[in-house]
Amino acid sequence: MFMKKFMPLLIISLLFSCQNKAQVNNNHNALINAKPIEVPLINGQAKAYFASGCFWCVEAIFESVNGVNEVINGYSGGHTNNPTYEASNTGRTGHAEAVEVIYNPKIVSFSTLVDIYFGSQNPLQVNGQGPDKGSQYRSIIFYQNEEQKQIIESKKAALSKKLNAEVAAEIYPFQKFWKAEDYHQNYEKLHPENRYVQGVSIPRLNRFKGKFPELLKN
Fold first, then answer.
1. Of these residues, 31, 46, 51, 54, which one is catalytic?
2. Is residue 11 part of a domain?
3. Mind listing the pLDDT tens digit for each residue in 51-68?
């Protein structure tokens, strides 16, 4: 009697779940198969886009690099428009916390930025970095043209071979970067007393500095 009563609800639930999974797969396929959008240089400055866990941490890392002018926190890699922090944190928008790195390519190359990206995270952690877990914290590296794609794929393959394990970072064609709310910008600098910053962001930044001292600003 119990099974007869609830079987229709179970079937509806399973069908809804399958539809959601199919939609997620369709969105993902559309993203990774899209034609990349190349961002033009402005006053000699180029832009690159990375996702690697909490954007507070990633922002602080790239801003410490010589040749990087500015880093902006935001969201990328998703399938909805105008994502917010609250919406992206549900994992339903498909976005990851990402950064826009504005840099001088005459001082620091895209190839070096990719080395910094892989060298400043746990490359084997899936859907997260450190204590931050979920698809919104997954690692994604975005390319704007075929040359950048080849650089990324080559370095990812070499790192996978070195570690004898699959590197978790996804590779997406760049489509759109949505700037995050103002209170997320320059967060590590403005809130050094924050417990998360002290316990996660600053230690991660210091590990990076110890690993790449030759790339740091004076």
1. 54
2. no
3. 999 999 999 999 999 999
